[in-house]
Amino acid sequence: MSNYIGKSIKRREDNRFITGKGKYTDDLVLTGMTHLAFVRSPYAHAKIKNINTKAALAHPGVVAIYTGDDCGNFGVPCGWQVNFKNGDTMKEPPHPLLAVGKARHVGENVAAVIAETLQAARDAVELVEVDYDELPTVTDAKAAIQPGAPQVHDDVPNNIVFDFQIGNPKDEVNAAIESASHVTKLNFKNQRLSPNAIEPRSYIADYDVNADKYTLYTSTQNPHLIRLLMCAFVLGLPEHKVRVISHDVGGGFGSKIYHYTEEALVTWVSKQIGRPVKWTSDRSEAFLTDAHGRDHVTTAEMGFDDNGKIVAFRVHSEANLGAYLSTFSTACPTYLHGTLAQGCYTTPLINVDITAVFTNTTPVDAYRGAGRPEMTYILEHLMDTAALEMKRDPVELRRINFIPAFDGVNQPGYQTQVALQYDSGNYHATLDRALEMLDYKQFRKDQEESRTNGKLLGIGFSTYIEACGIAPSAVVGSLGARAGLYESGHVRVQPTGKVSVFTGSHSHGQGHETSYAQFVADTLGIPIDDVDIIHGDTNEVAFGMGTYGSRSLAVGGSAIMKSLDKIIEKGAKIAAHKLEAAEADLEFAEGKWTVKGTDKSITFGDVSLTAYVPHDYPAGLEPGLDFSSFYDPTNFTYPFGTHIAVVEVDKDTGKVSLKRFIACDDVGNVINPMIVDGQIHGGVAQGVGQALLEGVVYDENGQMITGSYMDYAMPRADDLPFFETDRKVTPCPHNPLGVKGAGEAGTIGATPAVANAVMDAISHLGIKDIQMPITPERVWRAMNS
Amino acid sequence: MIVQGRYRILASATDVWIHLMDPEVLKKVTPGISELMPLGDDKYKATSKIKIGPVNGSFEGQLELIEKIENKTATIVVNQTSKIGNVSAEIKMHLEAIENTTEIVYQGEAKLSGKLAMMGQRIIGGVITSLSKQFFESLNKEIINS
Q1: pLDDT digits (tens, 9 = 90+) for A499-512
Q2: What was the pLDDT predicted at A722?
Q3: What is the CA angle A693-A698-A699, rounded to 5?
Q4: Percent of chain A surpassing pLDDT 70
Q5: What average pLDDT does range B7-11 have in this prediction?
Q6: Quick one: angle between helices A745-762 and A776-783, nearest 10?
Q7: Residues 81-140 of B with CB under 8 A from A
Q8: How far apart are CA A240 and CA A94, in angstroms?
Q9: Count of CA atoms in the C-beta half-sphere (13 A) of A188
C-alpha cells in the first residue's frame, strides 16, 4: 500500500527556504575567517608581462596576495577524455588556478588578494598593477578553426580540441540524403547561455593545523567528486583528511557540478595563511566565470522519402568549449549530444560530426540538458520545418516516423543508430494526450482568423526524448569518462525504528529530502516523519557522484532501495525468530511482518529494537540494522514527452507572446507529482528563455557585453503563460522504482516547441528561419526585409 | 566600437587648428579632464574622471596626436586605464573649410575592456555622442570668445 508515493506532499525544505533559514555557504562565518577577492583579466587574450603587488600589500588589512607564480603549477582537470577520430588523445592544456603567462578569457583569475575584510580585499584588488600585452582574440568557434586564427593555446593547432563522430558511416548517410525525395536543411546557432543560479558560487576553506585536516564548504552539486578531483588531481591532498560540505545550494543547473579553480585555490590558500578563507562570487563574476552552456554552430539535413518517412539525418557542428576544458565540457557535445540524434523516430541512417574548439571565452560545460537540448532543438526544429516545406501536418509527420510503443519487458528495448538502447517508450500516447489538451482543429481555425487582424498565431510541436541517469560505469568508462557513474545509498535504522538515509546524490532545489522520504517511508511502512534524508557532507555520506543529468531518483533512489531490501531481508530473519515462524511463512506489509494466514505479527519498530538489543536473537546473526549499497544502473533511462507552444506574433512590432504551453511528459513512475510539476515548470521557463530571450554576446575584442541583467534577458513571470501539464506513465523497466528523471525534460522539450511556433506564425510571409533568441527585433527584421 | 560624427565651428580652419593644438584650451573644453600635461612630441599625460551610467571611474594614461597635416587633419590616439577597465581609441579628424566656418568630421574606433565593456557598452555610444557634443560646443565658445 502507498501512503506517500504518488502524493503531492509539501516539501520539507520549503519552510527553511522561504523563511530565510536556509544554510548557504556564504551564510557561514568562521572564527578568524579572511576574505579573498580576485584580480581578473580585463582582456580576452593578453600576455601578463608583470604583476606589481607592492601597493596592494601595503593596503591596511591585506593578509597575502598570490599570483600564478605561487600556485601556477596546480591546475584543474577535465573529467572526460574524448579522442580524435584518428585515435589521438584530445588536446588538454593545463588550466591553472591563477593565470600563468597569459590570460585567455575576460574574467580569468590573475591574482588572489586575501584580507581581513571583503572591503579591504576588494580595495586592494584595485591596487594590484598588472602590465598586459593585448593579443588578438577569437570568440567564435567557426572563426577559431580557420587558418591564421589567433591561437588560444600555443600547442593546440587551429584551436581544435578534438573531432568526433557517431552513428552510421558517413558515405552511407550522405548517399541516402542525396537520393532522398525531399531534404530539409537548416543552419543553427544554439546560442551561448549563462546559467544564472540564484545563489552565486561560494567557497570557504578551513585548514586545521593541529589535525592537518581541511574542511571545504562549497556550493557544489557533488561534494565527493570535488574532494576526489581536488585531492587526487589538483592539490595532491590525502583524501581522508579533507572534508567537503555542501549544505543548502541555491540552484545549480549543471554550473555547480564542476571543480572550479577558485574552489581549489581557497583550499590551498587556507593552508598557506593558516586561517579560514572565504570567496563568494558577485553577479558580475558569475557571468564571467560560471561555466556557460550550449554554443554550437550547426548545419543539419534531414532526408525524407515520398511518404514522409525519414531516410537519413546528418549533423555537423562546431562546439565552442571556451578557453579551457571545464570538468565535463567534452562529454556535452559528444556522448550527451550525438547519442540523442535518433529522437523518437525510426531514422535508419544517422551521422553526427562534431569539432570541439577553444576560443577566448568563458569555459562551456553542461547546462540543464547538457547536449540534449542542442540536439533536440536541431531535430525537432527540422521536423516542423520539413512539415512546412512538404506541406504536411507536423503531427502527422511525427506519427509516420515514431518508433512504435515498447515497454522494455514484453517488447525489447529499441536499439538506436547512435549507440544507445532506449529502455521503454510510448510516444503516440503523450502526443495524443497533448493534442486533446490543445484542441488542434479549433486552433487552426483561430490561426486563419488571426492572420486578418495582425496578431499572427502559431503552433509549435516538440516530441522530445531524453537520456537520464548516465550509466553504466563500465560503458561510460570505455567512452572516456574518468569517473564511475553509480550512486551510494546508506540506510541506518536507529534502535527506536527511526530511519536515517544517507545519499550521495545532492539536492539543490530538487526536494530530495521530501521525495526520498516518501518512498523510504512507504517501502518500510513507517510514518514519513520517522525518515530523515542526509546529503552533502563527505564525512556523513560514504561516497557519491552527486546530482546532474536528472539522475538522482533513478540512480540515487535505486541505491537506497537496494539498502532497504537488505534491511527488510535481515528484519525478516529477526521477525521469524521472534514469531517462532519460518521466514518463508512471513509477509512484510505496512510496517510489520505477519505470519501468513494468522494475526501473529511484529512491527518494524520492535524488530529494530531487537536488532540493537539482541538478547533474544537468531543464532549467528549480526546485531544492528544498517546497510549501505552502491547501485550502478544497467542503462540510462529515457523519459519523453510532447510539448506544444502557442504563440502570437505582433505583425507591427515583431513581439512574440507565448499564449499557451502544453506539456504531456512521461518520466516513468512519479513519487511526488507536485515536485515533478515544479521541475517541468522551471525547465520550461529556461527552455523558453533560450528560445526567446537569453544569449551571451561577446564583442569583437572578446569583451562580454551581456554581463549584467541590464543586457542578459532572463524569463520573468510575465513572459510565461500558465503551463498546462499532464503525464503518461511508462515505467523504467530496469530500476526498482520504475522512475526515469524529470529535471531536464522541460528545458529539452520547450525550446524547439517555442521556436517552431514562431515559424508557424510567420512562415507564410516567406520567412525561412530565425536564429535564437527570437527577439522582437529579429522577427521584425525578418518580416520587413 | 565605431565613433563618428561632425560638428560645425563658426571659425576658420586655421583658428580651429590653433585652438585644437593648444593643451590649455583642450584642458578647458574636454569634459571630465583634470590634468593634461605635455610630454613633448605631441604626447600628453591625461587624467580624467568620467561617470557613465552605472560605471564610474578615474582614468589615467596618454593622449597622442599623430599624422598631423596643419589646418587639415590629425589623428588622436587615446590609451587610458582605470580600475573599471581600459579604453583605447584612434580617432581621425578632418577639418573642412566651408565659407567662414569649419566642419570637423571625426571617425574612429574605440576599444573598451573590463567592467566598462561589460556594463557600459550598451550606453557608452550615447555617452560618447553627448561628450563629443559638449567638447565641440565648448571649443566653439572658446574660439569665438578668444
Answers
A1: 999 999 999 999 99
A2: 97
A3: 120
A4: 100
A5: 92
A6: 30
A7: 83, 85-86, 111-115, 117-119, 121-122
A8: 26
A9: 31
Contact A36, A113 (CB under 8 A): yes
- Terminal Cα-to-Cα distance of chain B (whole angstroms): 35
Q: Could you tell me the pTM of the whole model?
A: 0.93
The answer to whether the CB of A161 falls within 8 A of the CB of A330 is yes
Model confidence at A43: pLDDT above 90: yes
The rounded distance, in Å, linking the Cα atoms of A722 and A660 is: 7
Contact B56/A at CB under 8 A: no
Domains of chain A: 14-135+198-251+256-289 (3.90.1170.50), 293-470+635-783 (3.30.365.10), 486-631 (3.30.365.10)
**A350-389 b/e (C-beta count within 10 Å ≥ 16 → b):** bbbbbbbbbbbbbbbbbbbbbbbbbbbbbbbbbbbbbbbb
Residues of A with CB under 8 A from a CB of B: 42-43, 106, 126, 284, 287-288, 699, 701, 703-705, 707-708, 710-711
- CA–CA min distance B83, chain A (Å): 6
Is residue A483's pLDDT more than 90? no
* Tens digits of residue pLDDT in A682-730: 999 999 999 999 999 999 899 999 999 989 999 999 999 999 999 999 9
Cis, bond preceding A715 (omega within 30 deg of 0):
no
Nearest to A555 by CA among A630, A616, A639, A624: A630
DSSP A507-559: -SSS-HHHHHHHHHHHHHT--GGGEEEE-SBTTTSS----S-TT-IIIIIIHH
> What is the spatial distance between Cα A238 and Cα A441, in angstroms, rounded to a whole number?
66
Residue count (chain A) = 785
From residue A721, give the alpha-carbon distance in Å to each of A661, A673, A684, A718, A746. Answer: 7, 20, 11, 7, 15
* CATH number of the domain located at residue range(s) B2-145 in this protein: 3.30.530.20
Residues of chain B neighbouring A703 (CB-CB closer than 8 A): 112-114, 117-118, 121
Phi, psi of A678 (to 5 degrees): -60, -40
Rounded CA separation A291/A107 (Å): 12
Report pLDDT digits (tens) over A70-111.
Answer: 998 999 999 999 999 999 999 999 999 999 999 999 999 999
For A171-221, the DSSP string reads: HHHHHHHHT-SEEEEEEEEEEEE----SSPPEEEEEEETTTTEEEEEE--S
Beta bridge partners of A214: A207, A242
Which value does ipTM take for this structure?
0.75
- Least CB–CB distance from A701: residue in B111, B115, B119: B111
Q: In A, which residues are within 8 Å of B112 by CB distance?
A: 701, 703
d(CA A8, CA A672): 5
Amino acid A541 reads V
- From chain A, pick out residues whose CB is under 8 angstroms from the CB of B54: 708, 710
In B, minimum Cα distance to A288 occurs at: B118
By the 8 A CB rule, do A703 and A44 touch?
yes
Show me where the domains of chain B are located: 2-145
A705 neighbourhood in chain B, CB within 8 Å: 117-118, 121-122
Q: What is the DSSP code string of A364-415?
A: B---TTTTHHHHHHHHHHHHHHHHHHHT--HHHHHHHHBPPPB-SSSSPPEE
Find, among A144, A146, A163, the residue nearest to A88 by Cα. A163
Nearest residue on chain B to A696, judged by CA atoms?
Answer: B118
User: What is the tens place of the pLDDT at every residue in B97-121?
Assistant: 998 899 999 999 888 888 888 877 7
Nearest CA in chain A to B85: A42
- Given A43, A701, A711, which is nearest B122 (Cβ)? A711
State the pLDDT at residue A1.
57
Contacts of A753 (CB under 8 A, 6+ apart): A380, A460, A461, A462, A643, A644, A645, A661, A687
